[in-house]
Amino acid sequence: MNVGIVIGRIGDVDGVALETEKWIEVLERLGHTCFVLSGRFKEHVVPRERETSFRPLSFFSPECEWEQNRAFFFPPDDADELLTIVDENAQAVASEIFRWVVANRIDVLISENASSLPCHLSMGLGIKLAAEGMSLPVVAHDHDFAWERGDRYATPLPEVQELIAATFPLRLPNVYHAVINSAAREELESRYGIGAAVIPNVMDFETEYAKQDCYNDDLLSSIGIRNGDLPIFQITRIVKRKGIETAIDLVRRLDDRRVRLVITGSAADDDRKGYFKELVETIEAGQLEDRVTFAYHKILSKREQVPNGRKIYSLEDAYAHAVAVTYFSTYEGFGNAFLEAVLARKPVFVNNYEPVFWPDIGSKGFETVMIEDGVLTDEAVRQIGTILHDPERQREIAEHNFALGRRHFSYDVLEEKLAALFEF
After folding, report:
1. pLDDT tens digits, residue range 354-391?
2. Is cis: bond before 169, omega within 30 of 0?
3. How, if at all, do strands 311-312 and 304-305 pair?
4. Which domains, from first to last, does the chain contain?
5. DSSP string covering 33-50
6. CA angle in degrees (0–180, nearest 5) for 54-58-62
7. Who's near 224: CB < 8 A, 6+ residues apart?
8. Deepest in the core among 79, 109, 135, 189, taking most CB within 10 A?
9. Helices (DSSP H) in 286-349: which residue ranges?
10. How far apart are CA 296 and CA 185, in angstroms?
């Protein structure tokens, strides 16, 4: 079949874009041909003749930014202008989808998170209008929903509330839903009587990952980590739900100056800089300046050479040199950083984050030091300290977890689930 994918941006490092690339690879392995309609292509993920750019779909487009500001951040007294423009923009989106579907003989449409989260009102409404006017099946790949985002999508405008309620998530007879965790499946069933397939995020367990090589062999020394140190890495963005303060407290309580925490995220991840400031103050209060390192100036998503011959290392390079990984998040829609640590064959210390970790991941049998409610107990600190000082135990944990990861979260698993989903 010709599979058409509608997405706000692709070729980027956000979770939706990354998982979409994996779906494309596996769908083509199954014999389908994928076409992509997007507002932004940062990198090419299919041949260019199968890419179609339509700028209004971008989250950074003037259309999307204006709609979001008026709907949620700076709402007017009267919603008439907003609703009129959203409808006009949605009609343009629907027309472009119709044109694109006909031109490429699309057999099935995939809406990548655009029909579950109201982060782009006219895109979601435009997909709904297109789906209503076409007989082809539509797969809504739902990564997260408005009710999971606190008050981010709260609005005082009743008309906008009605628009969101009628459009997100997409509910039509020709729409099939795929969610990334079992809690989302239960919520869809409870709220709307909608059945959904659970298709977890996956990793490529057949490709070598996070190996030390001649490019990254000086990574640790470049960020001030000495021979004999025990570097544990926090390889996430700096946002409050990541629980980075718990990792800092872990370093303090281990009371071994060789244990060093490396945080790869930057203050740019923290919209208002309040959380980053809290972390810095926690480090200073604990006199941990020489044991906690912010490495955002050296480690980004991908390798690159910058002026003066200075290297930028990738997140994969960071995993390659970690003794272990901290992942004390309080909430995640899935938890790719956990799977990345498993793929990199590194022990991972984790909080039993809601609503996913234990039901969808931890219960599979992974060996890890797991804490509850972000509380770092004395026993957890003792277990972590034992693992950090025992290379053989690290290897045992790594190999056990890697085998489980391959069994439950590999491309083969994705292939099996997509093959079942696409039996229309």
Report:
1. 999 999 999 999 999 999 999 999 999 999 999 999 99
2. yes
3. antiparallel
4. 2-202+411-421 (3.40.50.2000), 219-408 (3.40.50.2000)
5. EEEEEES-BSS-SS-GGG
6. 100
7. 293
8. 109
9. 315-321, 336-343
10. 36
